[in-house]
Amino acid sequence: MAHLSINPDLLSTLKDKVVVLTGGATGIGRSTVKLFYQHGAKIIFGDVADVHGTSLEKELGSERAVFIHCDTTSYSSQLNLFKTAIQKWGRIDIAVANAGISLPADPFSPDADIEKEFSTAEIDVNLKGPLITSRIGLHFLRKNGREGGDLILVSSIAGWKECTGLVAYTASKHGVVGIMRGLHLSAVKEGVRINVICPWMTKTGMVKGIERGWKEQGLPENEPEDVGKAIVLCATANRGDGKHKGAVTPFAGKIVWVAGGESYEIEDNLQRLEPEWLGKENAEVLKRGQDFLMAEGTSWDTAKAKN
Ligand SMILES: NC(=O)c1ccc[n+]([C@@H]2O[C@H](COP(=O)([O-])OP(=O)(O)OC[C@H]3O[C@@H](n4cnc5c(N)ncnc54)[C@H](O)[C@@H]3O)[C@@H](O)[C@H]2O)c1
To answer: Sorted alphabetically, which InterPro entries does this protein's record hold (predicted)?
Structure first.
């Protein structure tokens, strides 16, 4: 596990960078928009919460912070978000898939009515949304040539840990880690770094149900800005000459857990210790399989496969 902290020298690399972010009206997204703005970036942010989105645009001024109504479950709505950035500033350097919801009523509870269909909105917003952001984001980020681009996906502690009572949410957030694992190795060859943020308890509207009990337990909490800093860390880790403390470069394919206001990279050790938890022989044969799947000429599409 690597403890990460921001090297302030890298923050100036955000000047005039173009950021597209979803779910920017409240909570973590709102704090992240402000951080990018403070460091000189230009931001298009989308959300369904128009009143909060418009108020943030007003607070920052629409020259460098533009709010667009965007429902991330709609492909055309996200396309419009990204195209607005292109029309306005001609390029996109950083894309952040942050919009998310959680539905606290548990459809798996013993007293849930089996006759009633349950909502799968968490899958739509938390998984389909980031899939769309990733596809459109990659399309524009890969155009940046040598400078490359950064795609940052906001998952959750529920992206890698048990999370009782939030089944669909947990499945959706595991899926967000899956987007990174499915896309990162090919994207990095095109200069696009994909990293995932997994916040633990963060004081936003989303955690109202557990906030009081959590505090009574004395458990660690994040301010929304702490998660925003982790997003900014990912967006700047490969820019400029310096390094963020604890960050290996290229900083890509990483999972950053944010807990008690601190950021920790956890994916590298999971990969490094694979022979230990999977067994040496299994790890070796798995590597051969992975090498085959990544080789030139291997494709899941029979029309393209040469191997
Ligand atoms: N707060 C936490 O403890 C915590 C922990 C882990 C992960 N997260 C994740 O962080 C992200 C931000 O959540 P938050 O805690 O700031 O909560 P939040 O509710 O304050 O922010 C979520 C934002 O997403 C927007 N949104 C919801 N559905 C949308 C849609 N279809 N299209 C566009 N925007 C939509 C909301 O209007 C809101 O502004 C989410 O992905 C969430 O799952 C939060």
So the answer is: NAD(P)-bd_dom_sf, Sc_DH/Rdtase_CS, SDR_fam
